[in-house]
Amino acid sequence: MTDQQKSYSDPISYAAPRTLDEAAALLSAGNVTVLAGGTDLMPQTQSGKVKFKPLLMNVRRVAGLGGIAEAAGTIRIGALATITELLQSELVRDRLGILWQACEHFASDQIRNAATIGGNVCNASPAGDTLVPLLALNARVLLVSKPNGALVERRLPLAGFFVAPGRSQLAASELLAAVEVPLPPRGFAGEFFKFGTRPGLDISAISMALGGVRENRTLRDVRVAFGAVAPTPIRGPKTEAALEGRTLDAAAIETAVAAALADIRPISDVRATDWYRRELVGNLLRRMLSHVCER
User: Domain limits at 171?
Assistant: First the structure.
């Protein structure tokens, strides 16, 4: 690469703020690329999909962006919490089981040690591993900015955060500070599943999260979310309505499968065809609901 090419694609300056206030002030000036774990950013810049802006801001030392804690009925997951930290958290394992399961299927140990939940959310991939369980858990994002010299917070439901592949409601002047998850009701349980050639390492061909409170052979407070079957990760409102309060017999399961196929909008790409994704969703939902019935 020539010096001229480097000056065009490489950042001109670097910052490593220590406080949220400082980071938000740098963002408000514009032309900033945010670096956290770098597991998405580095491959994207090397492939040319993303170009560095003049300032590269490393937020790994910003106080207040890490940690996993419960308060007032909500679990706050700091944007810098790594996938490994989520896996090691008893709180996540015990109360957010489907998110914990997704982290078990997230890439390799080396990637889990660096990848952050904030980066996974901001990358806004239709196949993002943590996004599907977070949708099913009614998560919301906490965004911060400093538009007029004072720190401002904005909260958005995750279901309304994604707008297109790789695009979200995050403004250029905003930083994702945390993901907030309301505590599911006691008795809430579910499953996460992803399918790929090598499910732990590959991008999902499809993924799904299913959860609810089981009462005998019925489910209430049903949540269903899908990944890699639409332009963004999505909830399945028709699937949820088909399952809510229904006895999970064979007829109810087939009704739910039909509803799921109406919820999704898959495409054909290098990982799978539209037809194959639909087959996977139907078969996977049958399997997950059968597991629920057997418990």
Answer: 68-182
Q: Domain check: are 178 and 72 in the same one? A: yes
Residues in the chain: 295
Same domain, 261 and 168: no
Position 239 in a domain: yes
Domain co-membership, 76 together with 178: yes
Identity at 211, one-letter amino acid code: G
Is the Cβ–Cβ distance between 64 and 46 less than 8 Å? no
**What percent of the chain is modeled with pLDDT above 70?**
94
Cβ-contact 223, 235 below 8 angstroms: yes
Q: Which residues, at least 6 apart from 254, have a Cβ–Cβ distance to it below 8 Å?
A: none
Q: Per DSSP, which regions of 97-187 are E strands?
A: 140-145, 152-157, 162-164, 167-168, 175-182
Q: Locate tokens 């539209």: which residue?
A: 274
Question: Each residue of 68-87: pLDDT tens digit?
Answer: 999 999 999 999 999 999 99
Q: Say yes or no: 165 and 196 in one domain.
A: no
Q: Which helix (H) or strand (E) holds 57?
A: strand 55-58
pTM above 0.85, yes or no: yes
- The 3-state DSSP class for residue 116 equals strand
State the CB neighbour count (10 A cutoff) for residue 109: 11
49 in the same domain as 80: no
Q: Dig out the tokens for 135 from the structure.
A: 């949708």
Domain count within the chain: 3
Q: Rounded distance, CA 106 to CA 282, Å?
A: 23
